[in-house]
Structures are given as C-alpha cells and as structure tokens.
Amino acid sequence: MAAALEVKDLEVVYQGVIQALTSLSLTVQEGAIVTLLGANGAGKTTTLKAISGFLPLENGRVTRGSITIGGQDLLRLAPHQIVRRGIFQVREGRHVFSQMTVEENLVAATFAQRKPRSRKEAFDEVYNYFPILSQRRGQAAGYLSGGEQQMLAIGRALVADPEMILLDEPSLGLAPLIVKEIFEIIARINREKGVSMLLVEQNAVIALKYASYGYVIESGRTVLEGTTEKLSADQDIQKFYLGVDTHEAA
Fold first, then answer.
1. What is the pTM of this model?
2. pLDDT tens digit string along 131-167?
3. How far is CA 105 from the centre of its chain?
C-alpha cells in the first residue's frame, strides 16, 4: 500500500524563536485512520496546521523537514492549493459560519471542490451520512447543538471530495453518546469512501478504538508509534492516556 502522506523530520518555529516541533515524523497510509496522541502543548495541532499550510497565518514556519502526499511537496503549496490537492482540515472548535444556514455552509464548501459535481449530489451525500442536517438545512448554524455543528464541519469537508481529512479534536465538548455517533460516521466515511484520516484527539480511548495506527508525540517529537493494539497494551499509554493504574491491574 502506497503512502498517502509522509511527514519527515519536521521542525516548526513560531515568531522566529518558539520551537513547536522538533524532528517529528509520521506516515498516513492510503485509506487508513491514524491517530496522533500527546499532552496539551505537545504539538499535535501544529502538525495539522503545518500539513494544511496554515502556519504563516499565525507567524509560524517550517524550518526543516518535509511534507509530501503522493510524492508531491506540500510545503510549496498555499492552503487553498493543498485543499485542491485533496486535504481538508476540520479545525478544533468546529468553526462553522454561525450566521449562515446549514445549506449555505455547504454551499461555501463547494468552492473547495477538486472536481465538478452537482450541489445536489454533494449535499445529498452529506445528508445521507448526517440525516439530522437535512432536517436543519434552513436553520442558522449558530443555533445547532455542538454535535450538529461538528457534523456540519465534517459535512463541509465531504463537499470538497477530499482524499484525506485532518480531524482536530472532533469529540471536544460533546456528550459521550454524540461522540460515539460521530465516530461511527467517521469510520463509515473511511470505509465507504476510502478517505484517509489523521486524527488528533484527547479522548485516547475512542481514538485508539477507531484508528488502526497511532503516534505519540512529546515536546514536538515522535516518541512512540505502532498499531493501536500495540499502543493500547503499552503500560505508559494505559497510565497516561487511558487512565489505567498498571500497578493495580497487575
């Protein structure tokens, strides 16, 4: 299986002096769900921003390393070109257009489409995965529940017909039942459409359940990687991310 995305020895600096990433490497295979775990401030969101080309918007830059997809250098591309290349980021906190209706939010995403298809076809696909959005299509997005806004944010990514979705904390602030529902749909999208996923998630239990491979980063560098089965069995992962007291378990 060919590598869809490769990040090698990535170093990122903000404001010319604040080092956020130091020698971070990861690979996302085509059609896989890969999770990136780490404490707050470890560099998870910075990694996604580097892939999406957002760093210059926050006075950040890549000072070393490479990011490629299918062998193409993403560091040479602007954010809108990266989206057209098939990579769409669903940002932490959802960031829907609150004053616009659900359907208007989806219309806005059509400008990121990589290849032509009718709005009806694109929107029907979103409503197939998220039926509640069809019922809310004329409602302002700001009045949706948190879970519905997260569904809309993912739906906008689907309209763009991506090869890969970068998901930043999709469970943030949501009730457990809603989180389970959203992750089931994420898994279905991955399975049915073959869309690769790079998942940043504080809820390590659910991340390890739905991903097939994972990376753990500390202080901006990769310190551990492996299948999610291997990571779930690791005593350090159990202690620091899964809340398991390995001494008691023994």
1. 0.92
2. 999 999 999 999 999 999 999 999 999 999 999 999 9
3. 19
Rounded to 5 degrees, what are φ and ψ at 174? Answer: -110, 150
CA distance 112 to 118: 13
Angle, CA of 168, 172 and 174, to the nearest 5°: 140
Name the nearest CA neighbour of 160 among 127, 126, 200: 126
Q: Are 141 and 98 in contact (CB under 8 A)?
A: yes
